[in-house]
Design goal:
Layout: E1 3-4, H1 18-85, H2 88-111, H3 116-140, H4 148-167, H5 174-199, H6 203-287, E2 293-294, H7 302-329
Parallel strand pairs: 1-2
């Protein structure tokens, strides 16, 4: 009985070998994964730079700008206390606050060189404030006894305003609280200025300059803080955009990988597995004594070489079988 292989033995493609096919497959995988790895590295570096800019530059600058406003308010508080009480310690506190302001401005220059114009204006206001304060100190001369009743009246009015503000603080926003606080400070400034002008009319212009320079400094600091937080927000948006891009790249690569795996699942059985199954069937038939097998082999490669080797082996076994059958007959 003659058995013929229904389908000719073939490899992946005519004239191609398994090694070449494997090399092509690996090259295709690298072609897909290479850009993915490069894009992943790019997204990691870009995201790292943005996060580093937020953590190391923008957020610290905004925090320092807010602290600068606080230090100026502390300097104003010490100034008012000095004018009321003529306490040298309050003057020392004021000078310490101004020294801290200088350090903050220097740090901001190192962090954000592009904000140098705004920082220069803030420093100019600080120097102007310091100069007018020293002039006021020189006009006051040596500390003298201050009428206790005058101090009590000023402090009592200021304390009442602050207590009222604190009672309503929980029902107000941060912006409203700051505005209310600035209003209270303005009323205290007016009371202190009136007290100083009553002693020396020249203090009218000095107190106006002190109030104006400090207010301008706080305004510039608030703008610097706002710009810094705006940059932080933009950096966050840019980070989210990079994350969305990375997600789209991952989706596209996953889809391509899925399509490639489906294509390989259809290609591999028809060009590799089926020829090997046919060869196994042919060997099983030869082992059962059926040597009438037709091999239809095309192309080159490892599978073709294996098929030729099996064909020669079966032909050799059939020849041996034929010779052994002829020997007894002779």
């Amino acid at each position: 009985m003659v058995w013929r292989v229904r389908e000719p033995l073939r490899v992946f493609a005519r004239g191609a070998s398994l090694r070449r096919r494997v090399a092509y497959s690996l090259a295709l995988v690298r072609l897909i994964l290479g850009p993915v790895i490069i894009l992943a590295i790019y997204y990691l570096i870009a995201t790292g730079r943005i996060v580093d800019r937020i953590v190391s530059v923008d957020a610290p600058t905004a925090t320092l700008a807010e602290r600068a406003s606080t230090e100026m308010l502390d300097a104003r508080r010490a100034e008012r206390n000095y004018f009321l009480l003529h306490d040298p310690q309050e003057l020392q506190n004021n000078r310490q606050a101004l020294a801290i302001l200088q350090q903050i401005l220097a740090t901001c220059r190192d962090l954000k060189p592009e904000e140098r114009p705004a920082l220069d204006r803030m420093e100019a206001q600080t120097k102007f404030y310091r100069g007018r304060l020293e002039e006021a100190v020189s006009r006051l001369g040596q500390p003298t006894d201050v009428p206790e009743e005058r101090v009590r009246e000023v402090v009592r009015a200021y304390e009442s305003d602050l207590n009222d503000l604190l009672r309503r603080a929980r029902r107000q926003s941060r912006r409203q609280i700051i505005q209310e606080l600035q209003s209270r400070v303005g009323s205290l400034d007016a009371q202190v200025a009136a007290t100083l002008v009553a002693e020396d009319p020249a203090f009218g212009q000095i107190t106006t300059d002190l109030r104006g320079s400090s207010s301008e400094f706080i305004r510039l600091a608030a703008e610097l803080e706002r710009r810094s937080w705006d940059r932080v927000q933009r950096d966050h948006e840019q980070t989210r955009m990079l994350v969305r891009r990375a997600e789209w790249v991952l989706i596209i690569v996953s889809a391509l990988t899925l399509l490639l795996s489906v294509w390989v699942s259809f290609l591999l059985p028809s060009q590799v597995v089926k020829p090997l199954v046919d060869l196994k069937t042919a060997v099983d038939h030869a082992a059962a004594g059926n040597y009438e097998i037709e091999f239809d082999v095309q192309g080159e490669g490892e599978v073709v070489q294996l098929a030729n080797s099996v064909r020669r082996l079966i032909a050799h076994v059939r020849e041996k079988k034929t010779n052994s059958n002829l020997t007894p007959a002779s």
